[in-house]
Amino acid sequence: MSPSSPTATPTWRQFERKVDEVKPSKTDINYLVMDYLITNGYPAAAKKFALEANIQPRADIEAIQERVEIRTAIHAGNIQTAIEKINELNPQILDENPPLHFALLRLQLVELIRSCTSTPDGDISPALEFATSQLAPRAPTNPQFLEDLERTLALLIFPSDNLSPSLAPLLQPELRKDIANRVNEAILQTQGDCKEARLRNLVKLRAWAENKAREAKKDIPDKLSLGLGDSNSSTSSTHDNSNAGTSQNGSSNDTVMTNSGDVDPMIS
């Protein structure tokens, strides 16, 4: 049903009227935006927004920088640096999360293999030694660890320009982005914060409510804009993108990250 349909006009107007009746305060909206900037690690944008909105951040903006540095190191492939910074911040983050620790070590192995195989006669012994000392002892503790290690070591056998669909993603930027996002969430949890911005939770909740309404055959408009600048966007086709990819917000000097690698629409 669309607003242009004569028979749909009353339903559309009724729905629009109900939407207009919901009037969140400007302060609440500002704090939602601030929570998003802090949770996803945009300190420069958070500082600027706090000044422009004349609000007091509910967190230490300077503390965000630690997460930003860790995220930046992971995106650059400097996994050892990232692990050291995580341990400096809180050693329990990795000690109490074996899957995340293994994922970081496997990513470090991927980076070693990438370096070793960048030349035809590259020495692969550093990668083999790292796999033997760091990952092999952990692999038997979890079937998924063993499978991940075996797949990663297969990169030493096949040329990087002709990898199978199961191996190719290991060398793609998305793996770094995914691990960086998991690390960010783990740090937030250990600090007693929500691992995901409240604004994203609201977007997910709206998408869920719309899908439920459509499943129940409720009479709602065909398309519901999220109000993010795309009049044709619909929550039913919205994908959650958080903390990965890279683009640059020139006004804030923060790296804008989304899982798809696109510019984050909530920052850009």
UniProtKB/TrEMBL annotation:
- Location of the CTLH domain: 63-120
Superkingdom, taxonomy of origin: Eukaryota
Regions of biased composition (Polar residues) lie at 243-261
Xref: InterPro entries: CRA_dom (IPR013144), CTLH/CRA (IPR024964), CTLH_C (IPR006595), LisH (IPR006594), Ubq-SigPath_Reg (IPR050618)
- Skewed-composition ranges (Low complexity): 225-242
Residues covered by region (Disordered): 222-268
Q: Which SMART domains does this UniProt record tie to the protein?
A: CRA, CTLH, LisH
**What does this protein do, in the record's words?**
Involved in the proteasome-dependent degradation of fructose-1,6-bisphosphatase.
Write the protein's name. Protein FYV10
Task: Say which species the protein is native to.
Answer: Aspergillus aculeatus (strain ATCC 16872 / CBS 172.66 / WB 5094)
